[in-house]
């Protein structure tokens, strides 16, 4: 903990409360929230696949270097008491205080403009997905670039409400929480995609090993059945033809990316550790704010599941609960013998038949209750195999 200092002894009528590393981190982390500005404006970039990695790494590298030298310079020329009590100590020790304040205002204006350009785009994209029905009016845009005017107005109104609270330090911590959660989800998303790509490769190899060569006239039966499945669904459900999007299939395969110069920074293990660290930092900064955000995310998750249960879940097939369940089930199965199964037939002609009786039973019972409806599932009786065409 950082000990409180009596600022009145050095001319400041302020009593600083005790602060920890994480509370200070929660305030200063708000200055690093622009690292995803390029991602938020990816729709306006000419080549997002090339520009986003370069821009992200450049933004993180430049901002981290500048902040590091700024901290070292302040610690070298100013006493600790003034650093804690005077919020404008950097302006007083700068060579030209006027230029320092001008740069401070310009940087604040730049961050504001970046938020005005990027955040409404994100809100508009979320609203356009139709996942949250209450946001559907914000999907509309104006002009040839589909500018998100409605989303921008709503965002400014929300920002004004929070600014009226007055405590900038608490607002900085409050704005840090959603971004830390976003970074945690970004890290976990890469882990999930990487694991899904491995599962996809394993499943393709397993399915290829199970395929058998076709024999005689039976070889084309499977292909014929697959070729007519879509037509059968269209005939059974004519609304598929009226609304083609109902029958549209989403691409569920994870496509591998070619190696590049920044591939060395991509690691599923580092991303997984980063996601855990982000969540832990949230709890250390302010446990009540963190629990509030977790509760809000849980409420949003259940709300989406209630109002839009058929939403496309994405191309990722990896799940941490399923992984742990599979691992524990594998551990429990150690030392147990696999169960064997045997198929008993009625015997060949001239061979001894087992003492058993075989009878057939209809799966779907026929009754006149719904005789006026079309029989999607019906049965036919035949005395011999020759009765079938």
From TrEMBL:
InterPro entries, per database record:
AA-permease/SLC12A_dom (IPR004841), SLC12A_fam (IPR004842)
Q: Which residues form the Amino acid permease/ SLC12A domain?
A: 19-197
Q: Where in the cell is it found?
A: Membrane
Q: Does the keyword Endoplasmic reticulum apply?
A: no
**From the UniProt record, which GO molecular function terms apply?**
potassium:chloride symporter activity
Recorded hits in PANTHER family, A to Z, give: SOLUTE CARRIER FAMILY 12 MEMBER 8, SOLUTE CARRIER FAMILY 12, CATION COTRANSPORTERS
Q: Where is the composition biased (Basic and acidic residues)?
A: 370-389
Q: Which UniProt keywords apply?
A: Membrane, Transmembrane, Transmembrane helix
How does this protein sit in the membrane? Answer: Multi-pass membrane protein
The membrane-spanning stretches of this chain are 21-39, 59-83, 95-116, 147-165, 171-191, 270-303
One of the GO biological process terms: potassium ion homeostasis
Give the CC-aspect GO terms: membrane
Segments carrying the region annotation (Disordered) are: 363-389
Q: What is this protein called?
A: Solute carrier family 12 member 8
Name of a matching Pfam family: AA_permease
Q: Which domain of life is it from?
A: Eukaryota
Q: State the organism named in the record.
A: Ascaris suum (Pig roundworm)
